[in-house]
Specification:
mainly alpha; 0% strand
Length: 216
């Protein structure tokens, strides 16, 4: 009887994962119904947070855990500096007209995005694709490495709504990094801090339109 219950739960979790991380992005990609993506993100975040807070096995400290950030900050900032420079060089040579175009065109709005994006977008994504995904579906994967890859693929696949390969490929690489950071530190704050650095840089350097325009 116990084995039957466990198998039924696994089937339920697989079905839920397919609905949330495959069917929902596909629906938003093809837009069978008009609904803005950011409110949808918040609704999904609310569902995931509800599940986490009602899971007695979940350590709620993982949702913040600021003590982990100082120990990782130097490594995060060093890696970010190198990658940010490479991205900047790539934009300069491949699309110079985009370089800092958001900052130059709308500096006040850019500053607003820098303040609100980490709170309204990055952290909710962290709840969904790191905290919830890891806690909810850990038993479906053989080890943490497979869980990290699955989390990154789900995170990247969600970006098909933007309808361009840059969003998909960049978020796959970022998803691997952010999921690994969360697994390594047990701190969603640390993972979200790193995510915010790269996301804000994409908007600043001139690649932001690849991560929002196609979803409108």
């Amino acid at each position: 009887m116990a084995e039957s219950g466990s198998a039924a739960r696994q089937v339920m979790l697989i079905a839920e994962m397919i609905v949330l991380f495959v069917l929902l992005p596909v629906a938003f990609h093809f837009k069978p119904f008009p609904f803005p993506p950011i409110p949808a993100l918040w609704l999904l975040t609310a569902y995931c947070l509800f599940r986490l807070l009602h899971d007695p096995a979940f350590d709620r400290r993982r949702l913040w855990n600021p003590a982990a950030l100082p120990a990782s900050a130097a490594h995060i900032l060093t890696g970010f500096a190198v990658i940010a420079l490479l991205v900047a060089v790539g934009v300069y040579f491949l699309a110079p007209h985009r370089l800092f175009n958001f900052v130059r065109r709308a500096p006040a709005f850019w500053a607003l995005v820098m303040c609100l994006y980490p709170v309204l977008s990055v952290y909710p994504q962290g709840i969904i694709y790191r905290a919830f995904f890891f806690q909810r579906y850990r038993g479906l994967f053989p080890n943490t490495a497979a869980l990290i890859v699955a989390s990154a693929v789900a995170f990247s696949f969600a970006h098909i709504i933007f309808r361009n390969p840059i969003a998909f490929s960049f978020t796959l690489a970022g998803g691997l990094l952010f999921a690994w950071r969360y697994a390594e530190t047990g701190s969603l704050l640390t993972s979200a801090f790193e995510h915010a650095l790269y996301g804000c840089w994409m908007f600043t350097i001139g690649l932001g339109e690849y991560f929002y325009k196609g979803a409108r």
